[in-house]
Amino acid sequence: MSVARITEISASSKKSFDDAIQKGIKRASKTLKNVEGAWVESQKVICKDGEITEYRVAMKVTFVLED
User: Interior CA angle at 13 toward 9 and 18, to 5°?
Assistant: First the structure.
């Protein structure tokens, strides 16, 4: 039987929501071992002069604890 833990992170990108998710998972994987998945809790954009300048996501990342 395995035991998992969930941690919340946020990530941003100037390109897209998908890029923000990719960056967040990649960065989380540097610190957390056994990352198994993530749930995107929310998405947000930052705008300036009517243009989107940044895409932000809040995620719950699941990782399995080692014995």
Answer: 80
Q: Can you give the pLDDT at residue 67?
A: 78
The per-type count for the chain, helices as H runs and strands as E runs, is: 1, 3
Instruction: Return the structure tokens found at 57.
Output: 């996501």
Nearest to 56 by CA among 14, 24, 11, 15: 11
**Cβ burial 26-52 (10 Å sphere, 16+ → b, else e):** eebeeebeebeebeeeeeeeeeeeeee
* Helix (H) or strand (E) segment spanning residue 56: strand 51-64
63 pLDDT exceeds 80?
yes
Q: pTM for the full model? A: 0.89
Q: Tell me phi and psi for residue 2, to 5 degrees.
A: -110, 155
